[in-house]
TrEMBL record:
Belongs to the TFB4 family. This is Transcription initiation factor iih tfiih polypeptide 3-related. The lineage of its organism: Eukaryota, Metamonada, Anaeramoebidae, Anaeramoeba. It comes from Anaeramoeba flamelloides. GO terms for molecular function: zinc ion binding. The keyword Transcription applies. GO terms for biological process: nucleotide-excision repair; regulation of DNA-templated transcription. Residues 105-127 are annotated as: Disordered. It comes from the Eukaryota. It is found in: Nucleus.
Length: 382
């Protein structure tokens, strides 16, 4: 199963140990060196790409001030005239290739059959032949690009923008969901264009009745296998959050909106928390979306945790016993003062939660019946 892994990395300067002199995790401060973590994380990404040559990943940096996509870098939009000219050139090249292929099939059919068998064997072994090998080499050479972009991101951060040991988790999740939506739309358009081009090829390469009889059953089986491979090549997105910062109670509503949106689209959210305190938001996110939640403070365990718990796709997790959090914090936050609430008042219209009673809801401005509320209070005191 081909997957699109979207990683959100907490890059807050106050949580990471950035100087190069310290080569280990400082247990007193709880600070982890960024360089050593990236080396282990690159091993995880390379093994993820080796599982399937069609796997893809993206990396978002999350700080207290902004969220940025550093890999793959967004491409600049071209003008309309240039795009039309490029499309015309592509169509001409495709027509020329089809014409040359048709002539070569008529002249050297036997030789081409042997060559096609050899090519198919290489495709089954390497997942697409020489093109896939070159693609894998391009994918594996991402370390320098990511390191340079992280250093540029840290240098461009303003010192006044750092507001304690917090990050904008809601903004990063919304950006990731928008990115996944755009990637899936592009893949769908490419798949539709491939289907249309294959139909045109079948119409141009019409054969006589006698030639259709010559077609062997093996070729028909190969065509069915190719169609099944195209159907199974759809990307299954997955989100992974690496967090060191504390939760911000004021972000409860937008974070929960992102969690429910990913649940509706069936996108699991995995969470790796590298701090002593648990994350209430990520615990609920991994539980609601059927993801993986793991908390550790030891640097020596990070690579093993990544390779054993977070590398598996959503479909194959059914056959494995992955760790599950025993105590999940399901408490909500007050919409008024942004504090964690165990018992509170819930609006029956907009489902907003408040720690104190009020006649009017501050969000939707609905008026509550006072007599019924007084009866409920009187019965609860008894």
């Amino acid at each position: 199963m081909t997957t699109l892994l979207c990683v959100v990395l907490d890059i807050n300067q106050e949580n990471w140990d950035l100087p190069k002199t310290n080569n280990s995790m400082n247990e007193e401060n709880g600070s982890l060196q960024l360089g050593k973590f990236l080396d282990k994380f690159f091993v995880f990404l390379k093994t993820f790409l080796l599982l399937d040559p069609q796997n893809e990943f993206s990396l978002f940096l999350n700080s207290s001030s902004r969220v940025e996509l550093i890999y793959p870098k967004p491409q600049q939009k071209s003008t309309g005239k240039k795009s039309k000219i490029n499309e015309m050139k592509k169509e001409r090249t495709v027509l020329k290739e089809l014409y040359l292929k048709r002539i070569s099939q008529q002249k050297h059919r036997k030789k081409n059959q042997l060559q096609n068998k050899e090519k198919e064997q290489t495709q089954t072994n390497f997942g697409g032949g020489e093109d896939e090998i070159l693609r894998m080499k391009e994918k594996s050479s991402f370390e320098k690009e990511i390191k340079t972009s992280i250093s540029d991101f840290l240098t461009n951060l303003k010192p006044n923008s750092v507001e304690g040991k917090t990050t904008s988790l809601s903004e990063s999740l919304s950006r990731v969901l928008c990115y996944i939506n755009s990637v899936l739309k592009k893949k769908e358009s490419q798949r539709i264009s491939q289907q249309q081009s294959s139909r045109k090829k079948n119409m141009t390469n019409t054969m006589s009745f006698n030639q259709k009889k010559i077609l062997s059953t093996e070729e028909r089986v190969r065509q069915l296998e190719l169609s099944q491979m195209l159907a199974d090549s759809a990307l299954r997105p997955r989100i992974m959050v690496v967090q060191l910062s504390k939760d911000v109670p004021s972000q409860y509503v937008p974070v929960m909106n992102c969690i429910f949106a990913s649940q509706k689209i069936q996108i699991p959210i995995d969470a790796l928390v590298l701090s002593k305190l648990d994350s209430m938001f990520l615990q609920q996110a991994s539980h609601i979306t059927e993801g993986v939640y793991y908390k550790t403070t030891r640097q020596s365990e990070i690579l093993q945790i990544l390779l054993t718990n977070f590398i598996v796709d959503h479909w194959s997790r059914r056959f494995l016993k992955l760790p599950k959090p025993s105590n999940i914090d399901y408490r909500a936050t007050c919409f008024d003062n942004q504090k964690v609430v165990e018992l509170g008042y819930v609006c029956s219209v907009c489902l907003s939660i408040f720690s104190k009673y009020s006649v009017l809801c501050p969000n939707c401005h609905t008026r509550f019946p006072i007599k019924k509320i007084d009866k409920i209070k009187f019965n609860s005191k008894k």
